[in-house]
Amino acid sequence: MLDLKQIQCFVSVATELNFSAAARQLNMTQPPLSRHIQLLEHQLGVRLFERSTRTVKLTAAGRLFYAEAQSLLEKAHSAMLNVQRVVMGAMGNVTVSFVSTATYDFLPSAIAQCSHLCPDINITLKEMNTAKQLEALRLHQTDLAIVREPFIHPDCNCETLLQETFTLALPAQHPLAQKAGKLSPQALENQPFIMYAFSAWQPFYETLTGMFRSLEVRPRYVQYIGSTLTILSLVNAGLGLALVPESAAGIHFRNVVFRRVTLPADIRSSLYLIYRRDNDNTAFETVLKHIREAVKNANQNREENEAPAR
């Protein structure tokens, strides 16, 4: 096995072609430097230098080994830096799984910021429903899961990322689109309504249908859909109205407008961040920090936008 100290000594002598100068550069005396070169030559079984009382020259083998030795030192230095960066959380691989609505607001900005500031962290994004994300966490297939339902488990941390209200998406030509100010839920009585499907978005389905029952408002359900994007595309086609998370208002369709509705205070759309307590991937901590910062900025922007209406 080659000794890096011996290789460093060889490169220094090969560069200076002078043992005294090389010893000064390495902050050592000449006898131990000569010993390191001798041991290296013995291990390689070749002479690396032609020595005389006045000159030092590289042999043919020495010239070949010089290039290889420089590369070995560079790789060793790079390996040392990479290990240090991994420990500092500046390098590594992180998998982030998420429900689709997380991409409407904070997640893209968080990933962009992290990629800009930490280019050596490779982030893999996977869109999954909540159940599949929890299974991926259990199998250590994802580092961070962004889900719609809280998950309490002794092996995991669960924190609320954001809570937002629902906003009404409706065709631009609909009579309610022309009304100023907030709408009341009663305005949705007997309106064609596109609802989240129970099988795909159980929390939204139960929240919204339960609210309508408690308020004794009866929309006319025309479709049950599992995707916010598909719901908005149906609204765009004039097939009905829909309540969607406020962040979805950032999705632009030509024929869709958004109006605020006066909803009960507990009718909120929530996102939760879940990760394993035993995750020793230091890069995941860095990504987690950027996600938290992006959510904080998104919440501040939302509060500023809502301020004039209060």
Secondary structure elements and pairings:
Layout: H1 4-16, H2 19-25, H3 30-44, E1 49-51, E2 56-58, H4 60-88, E3 92-98, H5 106-117, E4 121-127, H6 130-138, E5 144-147, E6 156-164, E7 166-171, E8 192-196, H7 202-215, E9 220-225, H8 228-236, E10 242-245, E11 256-259, E12 269-276, H9 282-306
Parallel strand pairs: 3-4, 3-5, 8-9
Antiparallel strand pairs: 1-2, 5-12, 6-12, 7-10, 7-11
Helix pairs in contact: 1-2, 1-3, 1-4, 5-9
What general outline do the C-alpha atoms trace? rod-shaped
Helix content: 40-55%
Q: Biggest β-sheet: count, sense, barrel?
A: 5 strands, mixed
Q: N-to-C terminal Cα separation, in Å?
A: 73 Å
Number of strands: 12
How are the strands of the biggest sheet laid out side by side?
4-3-5-12-6
Radius of gyration: 32 Å
* Structural class by SSE content: alpha/beta
Please name the CATH architecture of the largest domain: 3-Layer(aba) Sandwich
